[in-house]
């Protein structure tokens, strides 16, 4: 970036902040607002939620439909259906959260 470009950028930013019209960041959509039946991973943005799902899948070396129903591949509504594995995963997440809260503040 050339010096002149930097000066113009700084100038434009100073005008924006000086006029009191700083750009307000919009709150990203939360997982529980976008997906049905989110019970444990509430309060995190959708992209973080999806990253977490991907991490769980990769760590366990399983495919998404092993936790979700096989019908999920054909219907978006089916991703929210409960399965025994999803229920166990939620219990384990709650257990880890309790352990962390009780022992590590």
Write up what this structure looks like.
- The chain has helices at residues 3-18, 31-34, 46-60, 84-104.
- It is mostly helical and 105 residues long.
Rg measurement, Å? 21 Å
Number of helices: 4
Global shape: globular
Mean pLDDT: 84
The share of residues in helices is 40-55%
Sketch the major β-sheet: none
Low-confidence stretches: none
Strand percentage, roughly? Answer: under 5%
Count of discrete domains: 1
| Secondary-structure class | mainly alpha
Q: Please give the number of β-strands.
A: 0
Return the string of H and E elements. HHHH
| First-last Cα distance | 45 Å
How would you summarize this macromolecular structure in one to three sentences?
The chain has helices spanning 3-18, 31-34, 46-60, 84-104. The protein is mainly alpha-helical and 105 residues long.
Q: Helices, strands, pairings?
A:
Elements: H1 3-18, H2 31-34, H3 46-60, H4 84-104
Keywords:
53% helix; 105 residues; 0% strand; 4 helices; mainly alpha
């Amino acid at each position: 970036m050339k010096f002149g470009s930097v000066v113009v950028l700084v100038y434009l930013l100073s005008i924006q902040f000086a006029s009191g019209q700083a750009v307000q960041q919009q709150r990203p959509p939360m997982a529980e607002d976008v997906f049905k039946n989110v019970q444990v991973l509430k309060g995190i943005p959708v992209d973080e939620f999806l990253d977490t799902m991907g991490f769980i899948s990769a760590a366990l070396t399983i495919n998404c439909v092993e936790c979700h129903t096989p019908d999920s591949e054909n219907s978006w509504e089916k991703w929210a259906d409960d399965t025994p594995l999803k229920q166990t995963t939620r219990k384990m997440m709650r257990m880890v959260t309790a352990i962390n809260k009780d022992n590590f503040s």
